[in-house]
Amino acid sequence: MTDIVTPPGIDALPPEPLPTDTPAEFNTKSFNLVAALKKLVSQMNAAIQNVWNNATAANERASAAAGSAGAASGSASAASGSASAAAGSASAASGSASAASTSAGTAAASLATMQKLYLGAKTSAPTTDNQGAALQVGAWYTNTTSSSWHWWSGTAWVVGVGNPATVDWVTQVLNKPSTVSGYGITNAVTSGAQMMAEAAYMSDAPLGQWATFPGTASAGADWPASGFPSYWNVFTFGSGTRRTQIAWQVFAGAEQSSMFVRSLHDSTWSPWQRFFGDISLMEKSKYVSAPGSAYTANPREATLQYIDISAPLTVTLAASRKPGDQITLMFSFPSVSSIAFSSNVKAPVGGIRSGVASHILTVTLVARQDGNWQAYDGGLHPW
What we know:
2 helices; single chain; alpha/beta; seven-stranded mixed beta sheet; 383 residues
């Protein structure tokens, strides 16, 4: 005779995913629920099998009880007891069937909820859930066309995790930093040129990028040329205290397209040096007004210097940078004044002529191998 067995218990389902969960929580709950549903089916099948087994056992016992009653009518009390036992077994079987039915209903409800949240694999974005109802916030599906998954925000499908090679970092990555410093990058070069203030110092130009220096009403104190209006595009590169700076003049005029370069050593910038081109073969010039009785001419400042003389003047030539260095001095005489040179200037035989009022005396000097300057008298020219 078939034995009566106790139906196994059915495990409670794990918490279902909610729209308010984070993506990571939502994923974890979803996968846990799907895994539990698989286990639930197995448990329900086992419970139903046990119910069937108990019903069979009850039927067998009922039949046995009826046979016993017919065969032994004198044992009515015994038959009645057997009938009572059979009725109890039938009641137990009915209870197990009811429990199994309840578990099956709970599982079906959970499955329906899950099916409304996870819509499965789709080739394009769905507009309703799998039952044709409105989409629930938090519902998601896998897009087999783009190899990514999407979740419903209530108004639109939002791209979740997908193939990194196809991710659009501008529109698909949420809560990302808005600046490169947010990624821990502190030395990034931004695109475009930084517009500096009127007549700003070029030494303040940002490192590693272009900067534009406008000079509509004046020129900056450390600019390559003092003329204005001017407009300079400047690029600075190198490291903190070892930098090179290149400047181009943009505005039309004598300095347009002129390019200058200088370098920073620790806290000291070298003088600007012009780069010659086929339209910019011009020496750097300097104008000196009434220097008094003494003046030092330095080719590092300018290789063409125009000097107005208002009194007898002694000119000292700075040390040359190397042999072949040269400088041209143009002395303008409003009235007759004398000129003397430092001992490192070697004048031609006969000396350098004296100045004449309302005339310009030109003297060109070339650095020699011995460190002295060799002077050439370029003659007097009227104003």
